[in-house]
Design goal:
The chain is mainly α. It contains 15 helices and no strands. It starts with 18 loop residues before the first helix and ends with a helix. 48% of the residues are buried.
Length: 466
């Protein structure tokens, strides 16, 4: 089988693409990404504790940069899937080119700003000199050249929306392996290779992104059904940009809000003491494997819903999403129960302290309720957005994560003295409360009138010369 396969089939009816085809490559990609990131962190810890401390700071900044680039990619993915469902391939291509144009413009500004502002931003943290130096080295190189990453995010979203998630999986796994291998060379200097430290780590990351950019371009070109006439980028009407941003900005805003709320919750946990903070980090490392299936199903389901809605088959989307949710719910429940059965051994991998082992074992009992409820927001929420119902789940999400999740973490964990168990109870209440509201919204069918594809969109693309 060739590494870059050409189209095996041109799906005239995109709704015939199975969820498995869409979701399994996303799951494999997320699984390997998480595992290789752990290996990367382990290698960095063997090089310098100061480097690890620096990376813990700049990783949050790097993730925020990615969220900025994902604004256009998220909007484009939903619009492309609905247009493909409606058979508007030319309009889908128009949206794809428009999203890449937006991403390119934003990334040039962001890359320059990060390179210039890296020192003053890190100075706000009052870091030790060596930690600040490592952080600045990474941010200037990684952030200053992040337009490669931005373009990769855009190309990956286009391939997934067209029903080819295995291509981004191949590219991202390749990039991750290149990054880890490059980091090993730069940190430990085997075969006489110079030890470049954090500068080498940042450089290997950028190198993998450059390679990814080329691979994505090759894959898109080989997928002959994907029409992306980049040479006509200057002819894109303003309405396309407005449509992409109208979908992408609220969704990205919700993602940013969630991550900020998690930072605040972590600061609340830090007030509970070192044991609570250490337990929090260990549990997150374990439980991220529990919600990975739900995230993968939700991403694939969002594309499927877009196909159905674009094709005018909303009733089929409605039934399928209930099935997707049931699969994700049962998968999470099964895995979290297994984790609880073997929690002594799992927690023992990370620590031997009795206080942390006991606290972690108690919190894992709460996770039996917490983790299955997360599927409301990893599957139902994306389904609403895939149907074009953008603002309702965003408003519910931001309101719930702050009023129930963040405030509840302080109320139960600190004010009422329940500690980390109380924090986890608040996070569970957050997932279930906003999840049930979104489920009620889905059952109401209000999303059926929110389609983003309108009659005449295809004609507009033709008029634009696509």
């Amino acid at each position: 089988m060739p590494l870059f396969p050409a189209d095996s089939a041109d799906f005239a009816d995109r709704t015939q693409i199975s969820l498995v085809r869409l979701a399994w490559p996303i799951f494999v990609e997320n699984l390997l990404r998480t595992s290789l990131m752990s290996v990367d962190t382990f290698m960095l810890s063997r090089y310098s504790e100061s480097a690890v401390a620096a990376m813990s700071i700049v990783n949050n900044m790097a993730f925020f940069i990615q969220l900025l680039y994902m604004m256009a990619a998220i909007g484009a993915s939903i619009l492309i899937s609905q247009n493909l469902g409606a058979g508007n391939r030319r309009q889908a291509g128009l949206v794809g080119v428009g999203s890449l144009s937006l991403i390119l413009a934003v990334s040039v500004v962001v890359s320059g700003a990060v390179a210039v502002l890296a020192r003053p931003v890190l100075d706000l943290y009052r870091l030790d000199p060596d930690v600040a130096l490592y952080g600045r080295q990474f941010l200037v190189i990684y952030g200053g050249l992040s337009f490669f990453m931005a373009f990769n995010i855009g190309q990956a979203s286009i391939l997934r929306a067209w029903g080819h998630p295995s291509d981004p999986m191949i590219v991202n796994v390749t990039a991750l392996i290149l990054t880890v291998a490059g980091d090993a060379l730069c940190l430990f200097g085997p075969f006489g290779f110079p030890v470049l430290g954090v500068v080498g780590v940042a450089s290997s990351t950028v190198f993998s992104q450059v390679v990814s950019c080329v691979l994505y371009a090759v894959m898109i070109r080989r997928r002959r059904e994907i029409d992306l006439p980049l040479s006509r980028m200057a002819k894109i009407p303003g309405s396309v940009y407005r449509s992409v941003l109208a979908v992408g900005v609220p969704t990205a805003g919700e993602n940013i809000s969630y991550n900020v709320s998690q930072i605040v919750i972590m600061s609340i946990v830090a007030r509970l003491g070192t044991d609570a903070l250490a337990t929090f980090g260990i549990l997150i490392a374990i439980l991220r494997y529990v919600f990975m299936p739900g995230i993968s199903i939700g991403t694939g389901g969002q594309i499927k819903v877009g196909y159905f809605v674009g094709a005018g088959k909303a009733s089929r989307a409605e039934r399928r999403v209930y099935g997707y949710f049931a699969i994700g719910f049962l998968a999470s429940l099964t895995v979290v129960i297994l984790i609880n059965i073997f929690k002594g051994r799992l927690l023992g991998i990370f620590t031997s302290r009795a206080s942390i082992l006991g606290l972690g074992a108690t919190v894992l009992l709460v996770s039996i309720v917490h983790e299955p409820g997360r599927n409301f927001n990893t599957i139902i929420n994306p389904a609403l957005k895939g149907a074009g119902d953008i603002h309702f789940p965003v408003i519910v999400g931001i309101t719930g994560m702050w009023l129930v999740g963040t405030f509840g973490a302080w109320l139960l964990g600190v004010h009422l003295g329940l500690g980390l168990v109380g924090v986890w109870m608040a996070m569970a209440a957050d997932e279930w409360s906003r999840g049930i509201v979104n489920l009620i919204r889905w059952r109401s069918g209000a999303w059926k009138g929110k389609a983003l594809v309108r009659p005449g969109d295809a004609e507009a693309a033709v008029a634009a010369g696509f």
